[in-house]
Every structure is written in structure tokens, then in C-alpha cells.
Amino acid sequence: MHVFQALVTSLLIVVAVNVASLVYARTATRHGEIAVRSALGASRRRIVAQLFVEAFVLSALAAGLGLLFTEAALSYVSRVIGLLGDVPFWLDFDLSWNLALYITGLAVLGAVIVGVLPAMQATGCRVQARLRDLGGGTGMQLGRTWTALIVAQVAFAVAALPVAVSSGWQLIQLGTAEHPFAADEFLTARLVMDQETPSSARAEAYRREFAARYGARLVELTDRLEADPRVAGVTFTSHFPTDEAPAVIDVDGVRTESRSGHDIRVGRVDLNFFETFDVPLVAGRSFGSGDQDDGATSVVVNQAFVQTVLGGVNPLGRRVRYVRYRRETGDAEFDLDMERWYEIVGVVGNFPARHVEPLQVEAKLYHAIAADRLYPARLSMRIRGADATTFAGRLYEMTTTLDPALLLQEVQSLGDVYDEEQSAMRRGALLISMVMGSVLLLSTAGLYTLMAFTVVQRRREIGIRLALGADAARILGGVFSRALRQLAVGIAIGVAIAAGLSRLSGGALLFGGRAAVLLPVAAALMLAVGLLAAIGPARRGLRIEPSEALKAEG
Predict the structure, then answer these.
(1) Same domain as 333, residue 321
(2) pTM of this prediction?
């Protein structure tokens, strides 16, 4: 998510720089008009107000189109989620007044930036000076402004390209990789039960009765499933097997750079969870029946936990304590004591081991949980020799026969889940490609515009040099030397930003330590884009007739 936000922000920055460049250029070309209006008595406030209104109309139109596109996109997302199941009540896909006001504020701010600031600069000098310049050039000396715009545009593009390429490549690898295990053999379902609304006097008693009844039904359903010859194994967990709850912990004797602690994932599992999913035991022991009791302090961690949290040292016997834990709705039966220390008794393999980059495997910690202390439970069963989805009908039948109050939700195979995730990853890679393609296209257009305006500013100079016999190579060298300096400064700043972000994130923004390759490639690409953008304006400069240029400047 953070990568997408960074890329979209880069795109917005490039768009803003391009719009500012175009408005500055347009204001500069209207220098003569502004000078005449000032001479005829128009006040500076009136001229600035007119330019602001023109910019605001454009920004308001863009904001309106953006809101329409946003509403259409949210409607599409709402329909897709509705097809997959019930839309949670806390999700609201309607546009709010707060968002409309926020977009309006952005439109006003954009109009001020691209309308008022150039207008203030255009009307800042004396009328006599502007009238003397009328007919000769643009009259606005925007050399520093132009240089800053080019440098900023190149720097943002160079800083964003390595992140986009690395993120997109990883998404492509994940989106096209084979399933990490026999996912098609596993059927998962969320098991819930109808509840009454008891009086406040017996709310606590009803809660205990409901937990005992639900736990007994869960155990009985597990026994019936295990008795079916097509079922190779049954287990239950608190969360989807690949989407455990986030938490922050402290490890006794292990410091972290973050004051808040170590970020991990926490799952609560049945005793046979690792056996059912063929997760190997690497060190120590697995869970036993005593680890499900109240007050049990034994936990099991995965190999990623050992590497990322403990730095590869022996974890057995080390103690951990929770700093922050996000308790899910309806999950009050598992109360984590923030003052209690838990002891690591075993290490298991990474599950699921589907990440192509080892550094991206999440650190996980597991607790053993009893059936009567977990609601709702996520059932997972392994089906022998067949697609797991073919067992869904039998599962519904067994659940209804056992207790009509039992309800199954989100019944699907892990293979289907992975297919959906991989499809989303491929769409994400496509989105990143589109965003960065837009950044490059806008950067090329912006650089072309800036170079073209530079040639227009130097029209008189180029005409005089041509009249004095300067050859094309020297004139091209003058145009390209300035472009090269601006591009070099922008590339240097962009490389420094990207390298700094990669170092601060510990390599998270440039997966697998690809900075040594991606940064030079991004720098070379932007240099080529910038030079290509300068070719057209430079050739146009060579076609300037000296007599025409001198006549226009006279």
C-alpha cells in the first residue's frame, strides 16, 4: 500500500510540475497583453484576479472529472465486493461532503499555485520596462524557475522509477508463481452460530453457555469430518491461514530500532495445525494438550521470526511480551495479558512460503487454542485426491445435520484464494506499469515544453549567432549543454533520494538490494528521455532565420 501511495504521489507531483510549467509559459507569452492592460489603467489586482479565475476554472473542471471517476470506481468496487459476499456495514462507498470539500480546497490551492504566482511575477515589474520589452522576447526571466522545474521533475521520476520497477517485478513474480503447497486440496470455511440477545442479568451466563455449546459443536464437527474417508485432515484457526492478526511485541534481551517494538503476525491454531498443512518442525517441540489450558505460556514461532526479530540466534527459551495487539470483533475469548511473558518452545517452517524474496516473509508467532475459547473459528480440511471445492456440498450437509444454528461463511479452497490474490497482484503490476508510464510520458512532455520555451527565450541570441556565422554544432551544443546540466542535477538529487529511502527502509523499498542496478538504469533512462525531449526544440532553433529573428526583436 505504501508503495502505491508513493507512486501515485510521484505521479501527482509530476502532473503538478507540468501544469505549473505550462501555465508559466502561457503567462510569459501574454506579457505584452499584460503590459498594455497595465498601461491602459488596469490594476494589478484585477489582472491577477483574472488569471486566478482562468486557472480555477481549469482546476475545478479537473476536480469535477476526478470526482466523477472516483464515484464510478467506488461503485465498481462495491459491486465486486457484493458479488463476493455481504459488504461489511462499516464500509461506505459513497462520496462524502468532506471529500468534496477537500477536493474543492485542492482546486483552489492549485489555482493559486498555477495562476496567482505566475501572475504576481508577470505584473511585478514597472509598466515602462514591460512596454520596452513588448515585441522582444517574453519579458519574463524564468531561468531559475525553469531550472528548478526541470530538476524537480527529473528528480522525482528518478526516485520513483526504482521503487516502481522493483515492486512491479516482485508482483509479477508472485502473480505468476506456482502455489507454494497443494492449496487446491484444502477447503476453508468460517464457522459461526446464531446467537440470542439475552437480558443483561444473564448476559455473562449466556456467554459461557454459548462458548461451551459452540466449542462442543466445533469438536463434534471436526470428529465427523475426520471420519469421512475423503478427508485427510481437519484443523481450525482463529484467522485465515495466511492472514494472521498484526501485533507488536518485546523480546526479552533483544532491542529494536523502533521504540514501539517488533512487528509480527499472531495466529491461534489447533494442536494439529502444523501437521495438517505439512509445516515442518525445525527446532524444539510442537504444541501439546497442556498448551491449550488457561494460563499457558508456550508459543511457537516461524523461521522468519528467528531471522528478522532475533537475528538468527537460538530462539528456544526466549521470552516475548505483547506491546500492542489488535483484537478482532467477537474475539474476546482469547485475552492476551500484556504483562505476561510467553516462552518460545518451538520453531516451524515459514507458512505459506510463497514469497519470492526471503526478506519479505512475515514473522509469525502461534498460540495453541482450545475449541471453546475461539469464536468464530476458521475450519481448514484437506481432501484426498480431488478438488477441495467438490466437498463443499458435503460440508454444508454435515453442518446442517449437526446443528441448524451452525452457519458456514466464505467456503472456498485455498487454491481459489491464491488465484484471486495472484490475479490482484498481476493487476497491481499492471497499475504500477501504467502509473510509471504516465510519469515518463508526462516527464517527457514537460521537458519538451520547457526546452521549447527555452529556445523561444533564446530566439534573438540564436538569430544573432547564426547571422555571425556560428555553425549548427556550436548552437546545438549550447542548447544541449544547459539541458545536460539541468538533467544531471535532477538525476543526482533523484538518486540521492532513492538511495536514502532505501537505506531508511532497510531495503524494503528496493527489494532484494537491487539499488545498485536499478538506480543507474533509472538515471540513464531519464537522461535519455530528457535529451530526446530536447532534440525537437533544438532542431527548431536551427531553423530560425537570422533576419526574421532580428526583425522581430527590433
Answers:
(1) yes
(2) 0.63
